[in-house]
Write a structure and sequence with these properties.
With 150 residues, the chain is an alpha+beta fold. It is built from 5 helices and 5 strands, in the order βαββαββααα. It has a 5-stranded mixed β-sheet, sandwiched between helices.
């Protein structure tokens, strides 16, 4: 089954309460489990950058929910298309708080390579920048580190 992905950038409503954000993330995670969607959300206190991946129908419905949310506006779609694999298979939805500069760096990465037009793993590629922003939160795939974690 082909994996589809969507990435977008948006502006949070002013004064978005922490508990409302936590509820939104929890609701999204629960929905995404049912829809087979995984992904990550970056938040700098004012803006969001979210990457969703999974089956076409699941990603489409999840993104429709995003677009209807009143927690943000000024949505700018950065990428929509097919990807070669899931890049965040461990997270139905995971929020990482980042500095504003980190979010801008990811948003300004080369998103065109995600569809195979150019190399997405090049140093200016969006995936490299996104993975760097969430690196401390990524689960280890090193067999020895996993064994040590027990």
């Amino acid at each position: 089954m082909p994996i589809r992905a969507i990435a977008y950038y948006s502006t949070a409503v002013e004064g978005l309460p922490t508990d409302r954000l936590a509820n939104l993330i929890g609701d999204a995670a629960a929905f995404n489990v049912q829809a087979g969607v995984t992904g990550v959300l970056l938040y700098d206190g004012e803006r969001f950058l979210q990457y969703l991946e999974g089956p076409e129908d699941g990603v489409r419905v999840a993104y429709d929910r995003v677009c209807q949310s009143s927690s943000h506006g000024e949505i700018v779609e950065l990428f929509r298309g097919r990807v070669d694999k899931r890049h965040f298979p461990f997270w139905s939805m995971h929020c990482v708080t980042v500095r504003d500069r980190e979010l801008e760096t990811v948003a300004s990465g080369d998103w065109s390579g995600a569809s195979g037009v150019t190399r997405w793993d090049a140093s200016d590629g969006a995936l490299v920048r996104l993975r760097a922003a969430v690196a401390p939160d990524l689960p280890s795939t090193d067999p020895i580190a996993l064994w040590r974690q027990g």
